[in-house]
Amino acid sequence: MTTSADEGQFLNMLLKLINAKNTMEILAMDINRENYELGLPIIQKAGVAHKIDFREGPALPVLDQMLQDKHNGSFDFIFVDADKDNYINYHKRLIDLVRIGGLIGYDNTLWNGAVVAPPDAPLRKYVRYYKDFVLELNKALAADPRIEICQLPVGDGITLCRRIS
């Protein structure tokens, strides 16, 4: 999974604006350590390897363990660009891990434009499969009274959620 140049630049500035010190990116959790090691030379070249706490394993049990270990409210910013069919499950956990006033960013919330496509629109198989999961997330975020949201047409759509309670 990749982040577009405009999205990367936007997130970089946003993190500076909110003075984020403790962040999480769900892709820093993976069931296969080889995926992390593939990017490790770039991480090392950038001089940030000491800032990354890679967790091997499925993300949901890792998040459950973090909640059990009392990491509640300890993150300034959390970014999610992972399996779209678990976005709702991630949100249920992440809302407690991000501090009040902190941000959660969900990537791909416009999902190739599929979220506004007519039901009979010709869509690639994987786009059609995940469309309902992304729509479900968008509806749930809009109805969640613990956050205020802003959906931006940057990259493939990013929805920022600021925890207010």
From TrEMBL:
Highest taxon of source: Eukaryota
PROSITE patterns: SAM_OMT_I
EC number(s) on file: 2.1.1.104
Pathway assigned to this chain's UniProt record: Aromatic compound metabolism; phenylpropanoid biosynthesis
Record keywords: Lignin biosynthesis, Metal-binding, Methyltransferase, S-adenosyl-L-methionine, Transferase
UniProt keyword Lipid metabolism, yes or no: no
GO molecular function annotations of the record: O-methyltransferase activity; S-adenosylmethionine-dependent methyltransferase activity
Protein name: caffeoyl-CoA O-methyltransferase
Source organism per UniProt: Linum tenue
